[in-house]
Design a protein that fits this description.
The chain is α+β, with helices and mostly antiparallel strands and 305 residues long. It is built from 3 helices and 13 strands, in the order H-E-E-H-E-E-E-E-E-E-E-E-E-E-E-H. This is YER186C-like protein.
Length: 305
């Protein structure tokens, strides 16, 4: 198994340099010019049903070291997950069913409640109440394994509901080239590009995240193919690395399991609660986590083939 230090560290460093190089490009909007790179991680406590997605290494460490993190939280949300991801067991076999659920965490003063009804109380501390609220429903529209690069193997629909003005995103994966496209309003707006040296090392991989600019390709309603597009000239906005070695440092706790790690370009001061994180960062985090899940599914298919 490849280790992060021996294999992915130089690649990630190069990607980070590309992210900062966006600031020198006059053809890019300010949305793709960043002054920092956030490192977000996923943690899987073995006693939890959900994968926990953290805003930073510091938040993850605060959560891991707290005896009761959902009852001793800070009012700014630091030390709490940004999201929780629940993987529905029906995903692999059944299409047109919910495959994943993303939940967000919101802190309100005692007596206040979130909008809507799909939430539950996780804890109370210092005059504040912590809520777990449904953030995104992911429906599997297509799920099959192809080895031909031109074939689309997975299509997922992300519904963010009222929280994001009924925004819907479609995720399209081509297993043969192991790349994932984000489609919104029939436009391929982002791409997760497989960047690893060894394409057969399916349990360890690196993806570079690109944002489309210029004449963005339009995708047909049936999503049977993705048009050709010059993604190389598009700005790099982050990367996602999945590896057995933890990029945030090894954890001694045996009940914890972690992967993947996400590196995203950002602007402005870091925020820890859901409200202080911009929509684009939240979207990129959710997509990266789903890309990791699709990698796991293709890995199982490849092993069983």
């Amino acid at each position: 198994m490849r280790s992060y230090r021996n294999s992915y560290e130089p690649l990630i460093k190069t990607i980070e340099e590309d992210i900062y190089a966006n600031n020198e490009r006059k053809d890019l909007p300010t949305d793709f010019k960043f002054d920092t790179i956030a490192r977000t991680g996923v943690l899987k406590p073995r006693v939890f049903k959900d994968d926990l997605i953290f805003r930073s290494k510091r938040s993850r460490d605060l959560f891991v070291n707290a005896k009761a993190p959902f009852k001793t939280f800070l009012s700014n949300g630091e030390g709490l997950p940004l999201f929780a991801l629940r993987n529905k067991k029906t995903f692999i076999a059944v299409e047109n069913r919910v495959g994943f659920l993303f939940y967000r965490y919101e802190i309100l003063r005692d007596g206040d409640v979130p909008e809507g009804s799909d939430y539950k109380v996780k804890g109370k501390c210092g005059g504040y109440t912590l809520f777990k609220i449904l953030f995104c429903t992911v429906t599997v529209k297509k799920s099959r394994y192809y080895t031909t690069s031109s074939k689309i193997s997975h299509v997922l629909e992300l519904d963010f509901g009222k929280k994001e003005e009924f925004r819907k995103i479609t995720l399209v994966r081509c297993s043969g080239i192991r790349s994932v496209y984000v489609v919104e309003s029939k436009m391929a707006i982002m791409k997760w590009i497989f960047t690893s040296n060894d394409k057969f090392d399916l349990n360890s991989s690196l993806f570079t995240i690109k944002a489309a600019i210029g004449c963005i390709p339009e995708v047909d309603d049936d999503i049977e193919d993705i048009p050709e597009f010059d993604w190389d000239s598009c700005p790099t906005i982050g990367c996602m690395c999945r590896t057995k070695g933890a990029l945030f440092g090894l954890q001694p706790q045996r009940e914890l399991k972690q992967c993947p790690q996400i590196f995203l370009g950002e602007s402005g001061p870091p925020g820890y609660d859901e409200f202080s994180v911009c929509w684009q960062v939240k979207l990129r985090v959710c997509v990266s986590v789903l890309v990791n899940s699709l990698e796991n599914i293709d890995y199982k298919d490849w092993v069983d083939d």
